[in-house]
Specification:
The structure is a single chain. This protein is α/β, with parallel strands linked by helices. It has one domain: Spore Coat Polysaccharide Biosynthesis Protein SpsA, Chain A (Alpha-Beta Complex). Helix content is about 35%, strand content about 20%. The chain is built from 11 helices and 12 strands. The strands form 3 sheets. Strands 1, 4, 5, 6, 8, 9, 10 and 11 form an 8-stranded mixed sheet that branches. A two-stranded antiparallel sheet has the order 2-3. A hairpin with a 2-residue loop joins β2 and β3. α8 packs across α9. The radius of gyration is 19 Å and the shape is globular. It starts with 12 loop residues before the first strand and ends with a helix.
């Protein structure tokens, strides 16, 4: 069964943010970057790349810590592994790996400037962002692969032309990611719908050049680090921000509870793993 055709839109670039030390997942992230932690059979980074490509975007920037070179290595398949899979005639696995390699054009942005904050790093990347709308994904926030969050976000942006964010629930999550007073738009019709008083923004954003303008304002007021959420709140106050209420499942894989929940739920639904898993746990599926 083939993959559906990606949607048509004018957004040509995405940025996947893989920074941070992963302190909520220590000691697992002491040596292994959070972006490479696997949920089932693939690392978080691959889920993000596949989501971007399925949404019709193939130019992808990857922002990561300069001391986490394994992230760059994970974006290509080692020749020795290709040769081994060929010798073993494991054609399906090889085809899947090579499809992942060929599906995107990567631009790597290693940085050690954590003190800038994500907003400051976005300002430093303006040449790549090219003064045009771009998608921004947080690698540790996993959206259900069966319900592409970025596709819905692109539809909302296409209907209103504003910076748009994915939201999930009304009061879920931690306070720094709560935001109010933003119109919730239906991704299909673009018609304004119910507006939650407090919606948690999840790690999917469609940023217009207005975001960089707001980030500069935040930087001028507060200095470093530059807070992306503060810039989005400015846009919300100016009615320059729209929300896409994401209807799928979302997991904060940057914390232990979210990471374990994502792994168990997705494993339980996998035809090859689910029955054995539920049997071992002695739970009903």
């Amino acid at each position: 069964m083939g993959h559906p055709d990606p949607p048509q839109h004018s957004v040509g670039r995405a940025l996947i943010a893989c920074g941070g030390l992963g302190t909520r997942l220590l000691p697992a992230t002491k040596a292994l970057p959070k972006a490479l932690l696997p949920v089932l059979d693939r690392p978080l980074l691959q889920y993000a790349v596949e989501e971007v490509v399925a949404a019709g975007i193939h130019e992808i920037g990857v922002l990561f810590r300069a001391d986490q070179a394994a992230i760059a290595s994970a974006l290509t398949t080692p020749p020795a592994l290709v040769d081994q899979l060929k010798r073993l005639e494991r054609r399906a696995e090889l085809a899947n790996l090579l499809r992942f390699d060929a599906s995107a054009r990567f631009k790597l942005f290693p940085t050690s400037d954590e003190a800038w904050g994500l907003g400051g790093q976005l300002l430093a990347l303006e040449p790549f962002l090219a003064d045009a709308p771009f998608a921004l994904l947080m690698v540790d926030e996993l959206c259900d692969p069966a319900c592409n969050a970025l596709t819905g976000l692109l539809a909302v942006h296409g209907s209103c032309g504003l910076t748009s964010v994915c939201t999930h629930g009304e009061t879920a999550g931690t306070v720094p990611y709560l935001i109010g007073s933003i119109p919730a738009l239906d991704a299909g019709s673009g018609v304004a719908g119910p507006r939650p008083a407090q919606a948690r923004m999840i790690g999917r954003y469609l940023c217009t050049p207005d975001v960089c303008v707001a980030l500069r304002e935040v930087a001028n007021r507060q200095g470093l680090p530059v807070d992306l959420i503060a810039a989005l709140r400015l846009l919300a106050e100016r009615q320059a921000l729209a929300a896409h209420p994401y209807p799928g499942r979302w997991w904060d894989c940057g914390c232990r509870s979210g990471f374990v929940a994502a792994t168990l739920e997705m494993a339980g639904e996998d035809p090859g793993l689910g029955p054995a898993l539920w049997s071992r746990l002695r739970l009903a599926p």
